[in-house]
Amino acid sequence: MGLIDSHAHLTFPELMCQVDDVLDRAKDAGVDQIITIGTDLADAKRAIELAEQHTGTVFVGAGFHPHEAGKVADEQLTSMTSLWSQPCVVALGEMGLDYHYDFADRSVQRDVFAKQLTLARAFDKPLILHSREAFEDTAMLLVEHGFQNKPAVFHCFTGTASEAEQIAAMGWRISFTGVVTFKKSQWLQEIAKDYLADKIMVETDAPYLSPVPVRNKRPNEPAYVAHTARFLAELRGVSYDEFAEQSAQNTRAFFQLPI
After folding, report:
1. Which residues, in sequence order, are CB contacts of 147 under 8 Å at separation 6+?
2. Which CATH fold would you assign to the domain 3-255?
């Protein structure tokens, strides 16, 4: 059983222009499956088209990223829900809040996130969450909309140990990108070192956040998730094969991916 990159953006220009080669390199690196994320309606449609061309290898998460919140009209939300019913769409999102960049007004972000959560309750699919410097509001809205103890993952987690504990207590989980390999990420490494073996997942968030030892290579791509997995295996004191199998098993179960 090979690795799974649980979060990438294959439709972003840096990767889409070479997507066949990107997928070949992923396969060569032992990455069996990839979840590519659509961040708005047009991007989600491109992601679905790509997944349909690579059945069994590429799957989709679809939602409105908080950066896009200021552009989202109600009719687009309705159109997004029609995409959520597609078989290759295994998760709803990424959706959430970003108070770091504030590309959209915070009240607008919260409104669009809340509307997506309301619509998501009709679907039996996990949530992929984007939460940057916005944990309290993100968690509050999830609870208000009935998602406590429902499958949800805080992707690219870079929060505090306290936040990781609160996420676990609410029945949610976190996933790790190449950020955990950075020298200045000791706090994140401490969280990852003891994170529950039956919950841990890895991702690239490609084309961003290339891990050590390829941190200077751009763009990041799914093949590089193997570097993050190797780092985490060593950090946790297990073999690479054991970690790869466990993380893939966790990811496959969480997103209900086929073997």
Report:
1. 117, 120, 127
2. TIM Barrel (3.20.20)
Q: Could you give the 3-state DSSP secondary structure of residue 21?
A: helix
Could you tell me which of 122, 124, 198, 135 has the C-alpha nearest to residue 161? 135
> DSSP string of 37-90?
EE-SHHHHHHHHHHHHHSTTTEEEEE---GGGGGG--HHHHHHHHHHHTSTTEE
Residue 67 buriedness (CB in 10 A; 0-12 / 13-18 / 19+): middle
Asked if 187 and 160 touch (Cβ cutoff 8 Å), the reply is: yes
CA distances from 201 to 80, 112, 116, 229, 253 (A): 26, 27, 24, 9, 11
Report the alpha-carbon distance of residue 210 to residue 65 in Å, rounded: 21
Q: Looking at 74-206, which runs of residues are DSSP E strands?
A: 89-98, 127-132, 152-154, 173-174
Site of tokens 């959209």: 104
- Would you call 124 exposed, middle or buried from its count of C-beta atoms within 10 A (0-12, 13-18, 19+)? exposed
Return d(Cα 212, Cα 91) in angstroms, integer.
28
Instruction: Tell me the two tokens of residue 156.
Output: 């690219």
Task: Dump pLDDT digits (tens) for 14-52.
Answer: 999 999 999 999 999 999 999 999 999 999 999 999 999
The amino acid at 77? L
State which H helix or E strand residue 3 sits in. strand 3-8
Q: For residue 214, give both structure tokens.
A: 């390829």
198-215 pLDDT, tens digit per residue, is 999 999 999 999 999 999
Instruction: Provide DSSP, 199-240.
Output: T--B---BTS-PPTTSTT-SS--GGGHHHHHHHHHHHHTS-H
Which amino acid, one-letter code, is at 212? V
CA torsion through residues 69, 252, 217, 230, sign: positive
